[in-house]
Structure formats: structure tokens, C-alpha cells
TrEMBL record:
PROSITE patterns: PROKAR_LIPOPROTEIN. InterPro entries: TatT, TatT_sf. It comes from Wenzhouxiangella marina. This is Uncharacterized protein.
Amino acid sequence: MRQALTMVAVLLLAGCSALVDRATERFASDLETAIRGYSDPGVVADGLPAYLLLLEARINGAPEEPSLRLSAARLTGTYAALFADEDARYRRLNDRALQHARIGACAARTRLCELHRLDFDAFDARIDSLDPDDLDALYILATTWTGWIDANASDYRALGDLPRVERLLDWVAQQSPRHDDGAVWLYLAVLNSQRPPAAGGQPERARAYFERAREVSSGDNLLVNVLMADSYARLLFDRDLYVTLLEEVVSSDVQTPDYRLSNQVARARAADLLQQTEAIFD
């Protein structure tokens, strides 16, 4: 699942500024614009740690400030998915991101405190009691939690948290279908592409989520095709769909500024996956 989360994480880089406190709001907004419009992921990889350290310094001075915690959670998790090459480092970064997310979500909205400690019935009841003001903090908690589960996929206790994460993401999608440029639908699509029908999976639900993500982005987000090929088409062993989706990405001339970085990543990944076609399906 990590390869899929890595690609979704590119979109998450663009959604931090609304949760940063006033002292850093202008800088975060400028950073968001620069990241979305930059076509070289290597530059982002080199520059993002400096901003992470800046956030950590601000947190040391204001440890209970939810906006700082939530921004640190999101950026740390995104950096881990994109640039942590070693499994141990990937786990460490995701541990830190989830710690920030839990503290920040709880500080922002008391109903988001200790969700991971509730039994599922109590958890479900808590989610039913939420309101739209909980959405931003809840979404960061859910996406960060997803990254943490992926980083600890060898631990069955971590995998046991997946239904909770899916419940949170589904709540966000229902409350705000266009949230985070449709990335919420991509998370749901990937989560529903992990098991074949014979094992209780619901791939057609995953396909509907992918189509919803494409609709929200007006077709400008090429990651939708890449993730659909790599998750859904491979799950169903549908070679024709796999190749069609990826060839559309490679031949696309979409130049939408807000998707420049993510589409650069998508084209590179699509070309790599096309080269693997024979090995995957033959």
C-alpha cells in the first residue's frame, strides 16, 4: 500500500496553510504555492526538512497549539511517504506524525481525543456525534493514522485499526465530498483495493471512489489513473484497463499549475509501471 500512499501524499503537500497559525500563515501559503507548482520532486525533498524543523521549533515554544501540531503531523507524514527510503526511518517519521496528529486533533476538538482507545461501538458513536467543525482536524488525524498503519503493516494490531481509519475517511467524504481536491476519495479507493472479491473485498466500490476523485479534479489529477491501474486493475488482473489507464497518463499534456508536481510524479510512475506490464500479467 505504501507506493499508493506515496502518490496520494503529493496532493497532501498542498493543504497545510489553512491550519498554520497567523505568524506563519503567509509563509505557509507561499510554500504551498511553490510546492504545487514545482516540477522537480528532488528540490522539494531537499527543502521540506527545513520547514519541518521550523515547525518543531515553534511547537517547543507552544506545545498545546493545535494548528502547529496538525501542520507538523501532515508535513511529517507526507515527507515520510515521499522521501523516507529506509523502513526504519519510515516508521520513525510516521510515529512522530501520528503523535503530533493525536495531540493536535485533541487540542483542536475535544471529541477527537483518545479515539484510538475506544472500543469500536464507542468509536462509532463518537463519530456520529461529530459536526463539520471537526472535519479539518479529523481528516489530518485519519490520513496520518493511515500512514502509520502502513509503516507498521507487519503488526496485526496496527492493521486492526484500518476499519477505524476507513470510517473516519468515509465521514469526511460524506461531509465534504470535494475536500483536499478529492484526495479523500483516493484514500478510500486504495483502502478498498487491497482485497479481491473472493477474500471479502469490494473492488467495485473502489472503482466508484476512483471515478469520484477524477470528477472532483475535473480530470486534471493524473494520479487517479495511476492509482487505479496500480491498485484496482492489478487486483482484478485486468491488463487492458491497466495499460489504457497508464498510457493515458504518459500521453497526457495536462499542465494545470496546481497539479504540476503531482502530475510529474504520476507520469514517472506510469512509465515505470508500463515497463512492468509483462512481469505483472504474464
